[in-house]
Write a structure and sequence with these properties.
Blueprint: H1 2-28, H2 41-56, H3 82-94, H4 98-123, H5 126-138, H6 140-145, H7 152-172, H8 175-191, H9 199-210, H10 218-241, H11 250-255, H12 266-293, H13 297-321, H14 331-343, H15 349-374, H16 379-391, E1 397-400, H17 406-411, E2 414-417, H18 426-435, E3 438-442, H19 454-462, E4 464-466, E5 474-476
Parallel strand pairs: 1-2, 1-3
Antiparallel strand pairs: 3-5, 4-5
Length: 478
């Protein structure tokens, strides 16, 4: 009888986490049909364009291509293309539908939420695990980027999974678990290099368990090899074929030179003051800090070291990059330690009520922060793209009057962005584009980024303007 009761309780607990995961997914459903031309349209539309180029140009994971700058191929040194490859397969099977593209990162995010639940269940009581999973799903940054057509959700899935698998290996000492942890770590780093910080708590656990014997434990050396060698070789390979200069070697060119000094800059401090509350709400931040300060280090040190490692990632990597979506790697710890704080009150009814109230307040603030962005669509850009599609052929090379390539991506055309090839002389730059085969110049409803009027005048004097109602006119260059 007692065994039957225990089985029933286990089933009920399973239903609770299943309902939480369904709720997390359901919150994203209303916005799944959105085009990539919303917040971070540059990054989202670039990601989708890589998937489309797999289908329409070269279906090879080792050769990701963007639509710029110039005619194909435009190989680029970016993350290992797991997300885009799956989107390409989905598009090939069912057609080009944004819902399909967004279901890929959403699925990875749900997977990462389940891994977080398993971690929380391993170190804490079941209510804390439920709260952690729910908080993880309702934080504003997670609502936005869990369904964004970007690799962030994939990185979270492999990073959180890697930590869980390594902890499980420490508990069970089964080789296949360690091998899986190494594969997950490698894939996490291949998605976002700062995910390498998850290795810090892994090293700490190994040293605490084995001491100096770590040096001679071959399993750990194999784990390190599996974790680090594949992403290193992948990025080295891409550096030999990449044609797009800005993102090639981005770590060595833009991050490492300022790695330990950026946090002291006014810009970095201002970034964190503004973006951290937008990402996690003030409630989430305060709960995270309380959870970290009051952590039981003897029993929960892997969680504490992981949290500190991700704080270090903030003050080194994120302080230098200053993109809000780079904050996402600390998100699992914000949810987990926030849940630990709320879970400490759960044993009594007033504590349960207080925890529920805080979760409701986080939900309300998340809705207020995220919903305007989820409703946003760049209608002017989309209308301009429709004009390009109507007046140009699929293989026509075009020049867009924006630094942001979203208009190129929305138009499903290849070409150039103004001001990136010869930025100090846009007229000479345009002449070069024409020589290289550009057939049309496309301002964004008449606007050209950075133009003082000289390029506009040159276009009016030299080329035919195809006049379109609403100011969506384009210039014919050939």
């Amino acid at each position: 009888m007692t065994e039957h009761i225990l089985i029933m309780k286990t089933y009920h607990k399973g239903y609770v986490i299943l309902l939480i995961l369904i709720l997390i997914a359901a919150l994203r459903v209303p916005s799944l049909a959105n085009s990539p031309y919303e917040y971070d349209s540059w990054r989202q539309s670039d990601t989708e364009s890589i998937a489309i180029n797999f289908l329409e140009n070269r279906f090879n994971l080792m050769y990701p291509q963007l639509n710029y700058d110039g005619p194909m191929p435009n190989y680029v040194q970016l993350e290992f293309q797991i997300t885009t490859w799956i989107i390409a397969v989905m598009y090939n099977l069912f057609g080009y539908h944004y819902e399909l593209a967004r279901m890929v990162p959403l699925s990875f995010f749900i997977g990462s939420a389940y891994f977080l639940y398993l971690i929380a269940k391993r170190f804490y009581q079941m209510p804390t695990a439920w709260i952690a999973t729910l908080m993880y799903g309702i934080l504003p940054l997670h609502i936005l980027y869990s369904r964004a057509i970007m690799p962030e959700s994939t990185a979270l899935f492999f990073m959180v999974g890697a930590f869980y698998l390594f902890v499980r290996w420490m508990d069970q000492q089964r080789f296949w678990i360690l091998f899986a942890a190494g594969c997950f770590t490698a894939l996490a780093i291949s998605q976002k290099i700062p995910a390498v910080f998850v290795g810090i708590p892994m090293i700490w656990m190994a040293v605490k368990e084995y001491g100096l014997r770590c040096i001679v434990k071959w399993e750990l050396w194999l784990f390190a090899l599996i974790s680090l060698l594949p992403p290193y070789l992948y990025f080295q390979w891409l550096s030999t074929i990449a044609e797009f200069p800005f993102v090639t070697g981005i770590a060595t060119k833009h991050i490492i030179p300022s790695l330990f000094t950026s946090i002291a800059s006014t810009e970095a401090l201002q970034f964190f003051v503004v973006q951290l509350p937008k990402a996690f709400t003030w409630y989430g931040i305060v709960l995270f800090i309380i959870g970290l300060v009051t952590i039981h280090w003897k029993k929960e040190y892997p969680i504490g070291v992981w949290a500190i490692a991700m704080v270090v990632e903030l003050i080194t990597i994120v302080a230098t990059i200053k993109f809000d979506y780079y904050l996402i790697l600390i998100g699992p710890l914000v949810a987990l330690l926030g849940a630990v704080t709320l879970g400490s009150f759960w044993s009594k009814l007033p504590g349960k009520l207080a925890a529920v109230i805080v979760i409701v307040l986080i939900s309300i603030q998340s809705y207020q922060l995220a919903s305007p962005l989820l409703r946003e669509q760049h209608t002017v850009l989309l209308r301009q793209a429709e004009v390009v599609q109507a007046y140009t052929l699929n293989n026509d090379l075009i020049v867009v009057g924006t630094d942001d390539p979203s208009l190129l991506n929305a138009s499903h055309r290849k070409g150039w962005r103004v001001g990136n090839t010869i930025p100090k002389d846009t007229i000479a730059e345009l002449q070069y584009f024409v020589k290289m085969g550009a057939k049309y110049f496309v301002p964004l409803q008449g606007h050209i980024d950075g133009d003082d009027g000289s390029l506009q005048n040159y276009l009016n004097e030299r080329y035919t303007l195809i006049d379109i109602k609403g100011g969506y006119s384009i210039y014919k260059l050939q």
